[in-house]
Amino acid sequence: MRKYLFIIKSEVMSTLQYIGNVFGNIVGFIIILIILFNLWNYLYSDPNELINNYSMNQMIWYVVITELIWSIVGGRSLVNAISDDVKSGSVAYKITKPYSYIGYFLSEHLGKIIVKGIIYVIIGLIIGFIYTKSFPDLDIIKILIFLVIFSLSFIINILTLIIIGLFAFFIEDAKPLYWLYSKFILVLGTIFPIEFFPSILQKILYFSPIYVINYGPAKMFVNFDYTESLKIFVAQLIYIIFTYFICKILYERGVKKINVNGG
Known about the structure:
Structural class: mainly alpha
Number of strands: 0
Oligomer: single chain
Strand content: under 5%
Largest sheet: none
Distance between the termini: 30 Å
Number of domains: 1
Radius of gyration: 19 Å
Shape: globular
Order of helices and strands: HHHHHHHHHHH
């Protein structure tokens, strides 16, 4: 555990040294938020109107949280790093390292996004407040529970991205898989809550990564419920175990493939 904490600390320090890069990339995040805000402003003819039990202010905050989760992670760089690692053969040199390959990338990426996450959250909250003139009704206990669910969503998202990157062991390029995953998250997880989809699709989405990565944290921020928060938390723990298990299977089979092929 100590070596992974060291990796996280090293990446945090590295990010702080190049903090300008974080602020340079935040413009795109702000532009996307403004576009989505205006979309929902157009769809709501009356600010007090409810669409699928969501007010306009709730939809604004929903979009803030889901876009934060996606923008902070920066999944493309992670998938590219693993994919390039596999294609270049560098992964063979890391097999003998005194740490888990999966644990290394998880720790490294968590370290990279901590500082970025703090800055993005502050900016997101400011922009959301400017548009809505209010914050969701959350007391300190609800905020703490939300922060746990919010944090776990990043771990699941990163593990899912590692899975995509590890597919480079078996296909020529994993980047198209990332493109599909990003569009899946954007359309079904970022812009619209699960309640906006047909009932048949809703049942599927409740068992998909959307529920634990995007919908769950955002839903708890805009309309907190203790029972629902427990369900989301348990689902997140299950997903963490499941995605880590899939990562291990893909990595071990990929390494065997390298050894068989003399890589």
